[in-house]
Amino acid sequence: MTKIEWIVKSEDETKKVANKLGALLEAGDVIALEGDLGAGKTTFTKGIASSLGIRKTVNSPTFTIIKEYHGELPLYHLDVYRLEDSMEDLGFDDYFHGDGVTVIEWAHLIKDQLPAQILTIYIYHISESSRKLVFMPVGERYNQLCKELLDENISN
Prior knowledge:
The chain is α/β, with parallel strands linked by helices. The chain is built from four helices and seven strands. About 35% of the residues are buried.
C-alpha cells in the first residue's frame, strides 16, 4: 500500500479518524505527524489519546519536547519543532521501542533517529475547517494498519 487519503471537514472529523487509528495501535507503534503550524497535529493526537482511554487534557509539548500520558497504553507525545540539534540524544529509542504509542509532531526534524518502520501522516490545510490527511505507511505493520482502517470504513 503506498498511501491512503481522507478529507475531513472539521476538528471532530479529524479526531474521529485519529480515534479509529488509535483503537488499532499497539505498544511500540510510532506515528509521525507532519503539517504546517495550525494544521491539526495536536488535534489528531487528541483523537488518538481518546481511543487509548486518556482523559487528561492533551496539548502540544512544544516547550517540553516530550509529554507522557497514561491510559490503556501509554502515549508518548513528542514535539521536536524547537529541538536545537537533530542528533541530540534525548533517548527517543526508549520511546520508539517502549511499552506505549509514540506520536511525533515535526518528525522530519529528527529523521535520522526515526525507526525504519513508521506511519507518517501529512495534514494539509484545505480551508478554515477542512484538512486532507495523507497516510504514508512504511513497513508491513503500518501497511496492515492502514488496510484495517480502510476496512473499518472510516467515514462511518
